[in-house]
Amino acid sequence: MLFPGHFEHMQKIVDIYSVGLRFADDDGRPVQNDLDVLNMFKNYSGSTVIHLYAKRDINSRGLIYKLPTSDIAPIPIVTNVKIMGELKVNQKVMVYGAISKGVETASIAEFFITMNKNLDIENGLTPISSPSKEKELELPLQAVGQFVVAKLTPMTEDGKSGDPKYAISQTFVKRRLATHLFPKIQQS
User: Fold this and answer.
1) pLDDT tens digits for 150-178?
2) Angle value at C-alpha 6, between 4 and 7, nearest 5 degrees
3) SS3 category, 50
């Protein structure tokens, strides 16, 4: 008598669809499909052991299966994005980030300004540079009183990009005093 699960159990033990093999039961009857497996169970009901014989089929052609390769380039990642430099007009600031699976020199930086101290990349960002491989920017006069936001997009040498990360300055940009306009006072 067949119990539920016999057929599923048999499939887990023997793959009757193996290429290059022919299966037969004790009596030499071929087992080539699901119906043959079911008939085999019916023929041997009450038996505790069913012998299944595998014979190499020299006339069959093997399936060609190409294994996936590891040639797929990993996605670059950037972490610890920071803005470094003096936050004054006409001073250079630089964006820095730790890039893995990518190349720092190929990565793209872009600078913005915002009035909001809390970083909101959806609203209120005004670009002050174009996306570039250059990681430095001389702060323009329009940045005075605003916070600087840097966006760093990690890249591989072949141009594959990862998710960009943002950083915001801790303080706002200050106006640089024009010291050359004030005469020096010499003390004697």
Assistant:
1) 999 999 988 889 999 999 999 999 987 66
2) 105
3) coil
Q: Give the CA dihedral 148, 149, 155, 157, nearest 10 degrees.
A: -10
Each residue's pLDDT tens digit, 105-153 = 899 999 999 998 888 888 889 999 999 999 999 999 999 999 999 999 9
Rounded to two decimals, the pTM is 0.57
Question: Of how many residues is the chain composed?
Answer: 188
98-109 burial, b at 16+ Cβ within 10 Å, e below that, comes to ebeebebebbbb
Do the Cβ atoms of 153 and 76 come closer than 8 Å?
Answer: no
- Which contiguous run of DSSP H or E holds residue 126? strand 126-127
Tokens 């497996």 belong to: 37
Tokens of 187: 């003390």
- 49 burial via Cβ count (<10 Å: 0-12, 13-18, 19+): exposed
Amino acid at 81: V
Cβ neighbours for 20, distance < 8 A, ≥ 6 positions apart: 56, 57, 60, 62
Maximum Cα–Cα distance across the chain: 122
